[in-house]
Every structure is written in structure tokens, then in C-alpha cells.
Amino acid sequence: MPLHVNPADPSRPDFVGDVADIDLRNADDSVRRAIEMAMDRFAVLIFHGQLFTDDEQIEFSSRFGSLGISTISLHPDHRQRFDSRLTDVSNIDIDNKIVPPTDRRWNGSMANRLWHADASFKTLPASYSMLSARVVPSWGGETEFSDLRAAYDALSPRMKTKLEGLVALHSMAFSRAKLGFSDFSPNETKTHAPVPQPLVRTLPRSGRKTLYLGSHAGEIVGMTVPEGRMLLHDLTEQATQREFVYRHTWKVGDFVIWDNRCTMHRGREFDMSEVRDMRRTTVNDSVPA
Hints:
Blueprint: E1 4-7, E2 16-20, H1 29-42, E3 44-47, H2 54-62, E4 87-90, H3 104-109, E5 126-135, E6 143-147, H4 148-153, H5 157-163, E7 167-170, H6 172-177, H7 186-191, E8 195-198, E9 200-202, E10 209-211, E11 217-220, H8 225-239, E12 245-248, E13 255-259, E14 263-267, E15 277-284
Parallel strand pairs: 2-3
Antiparallel strand pairs: 1-2, 3-13, 4-15, 5-13, 5-15, 6-12, 6-14, 7-8, 7-11, 9-10
């Protein structure tokens, strides 16, 4: 089944696609294949009016591979609102009350406003993320996406040569430390030990080269910490110039799929006295980065 996809931003015709006239709850395997082909071109796809239940979202997402487990479920004091294959990207607790600024979830979720790629801190990182908008606030809460393929293409030949073979260490502790957050349980600390990921990846189907960055990257193997972090900082600045970035304003029922292997994303500020309820499924990559 073909997808009807239009560029969400004509100035970046191969980055974000807007898909019309489809109900993913009734999608068959031909739709999955069509989505994978479209993702090879666009890296981000936006679907509207997708009123998933939790079970339906899990079932649909599972067609693309095994699903990752929400990292927040590793904390012994956390009470999960739903299946741990759904990551709770919200500001409400198990009793559907808005969490206060003193809550560890509130503080931990602030890191979502840093540029990152989901699960880059795992030995087996993520391929696709799929985010469902259940409740949106009256203002703010947008998600921005950065095209790391285009950012790589725009690098100088000298920089491309410098990056060949470089490996970065990724850890959730690196990203959370930038905000002064250190409330990790022993199990979380063990699970989030730094893992190596190549700084440049080749995408398996398209063959395009892409940067692989994000706030979870804190060091580069073989470099001093200051030297490595400055290089990561410079590359992130390069990749988040406006020419490489798209901002999505959410509506209830929006369902966005993005490829973490070639994009970064970040959430934007919203009124934390209002509910923002988003639920994410994350597909494990088939091989380590």
C-alpha cells in the first residue's frame, strides 16, 4: 500500500514527511514496508488523527522490531502508569496528578529539552521512536528535530576526515549531569555505564553517512575530556543550525515516527501546571551502532 507523503517543509523536502489519509490501527504489513521506505528518505514522518490505545500502539510498533523498555521503570520507587514498553513522556503520576518540581521525574524529564537521540546510551541503541500525543498543553511543548545526515553532508572535507573512526562514550549520567541531576539508583547507575558509539554512522538501507550525536555523548575515546567535549559541542552547534531543524507543534492524535540513527530531537518548554501526556514506543536497532 503506497503512502501519500508530502514534505512538511518544502525547504527541506527530504527530512520531515506529512502523511495523509491513513489509520495505522488498521495497517497491514504492506504499510509497514511503505513506512520503512519512506523513513529512508525522510527520517521523520508525521501522522495525524491516530487515536491509539496503549495496546494498539505497542502492537503497531512491534511490527518494526523488538521494543525497548522504559528506563524510568528501573528505579525502585517508580510506579509505572502502564506497560514498561511504553515510555511515559508526561508530567503526571500514576494517580493522574501533575508532578511537582521537587519530583525526580520532573527533574529528570528536563533533560528531554536537551538535544538527544533516544537510547544512544544503550549497547543496543534505538532505531525508530514513535510518539503518540494523548493530551497537549495550551502552549509550548513542541518537539524539534535535527537532520544529522544533512549536517554531516555540510561538514568540510577536513572535518569529515577528522571524524573517521572516532568513537564517543554515551551515558544517561552525562546528559543528566548537565542539569545537576544525580538521583540514580544503584541499578540505574550499573545499567547506565558509558557505552561506545561511532561518531559517524552509515545508514543500512540508504547508505548515507550521518553524524550520531546527542547530550548523552560526554567523551571521545582517545581525546582528553575537554578536547572531546569541545568537538561534540561544535558538532552539535553545526547540526542544530536552523537550516537543519524542523519544529513540530502537537495536536491530540498526532503520531510521529523518527529515526534515532540520523536525527536528534528535543522538547520545548510548556506550562507545567497543564497536563502534557505523550507515550513513546522505541524500537531496538537490529545491530549495535
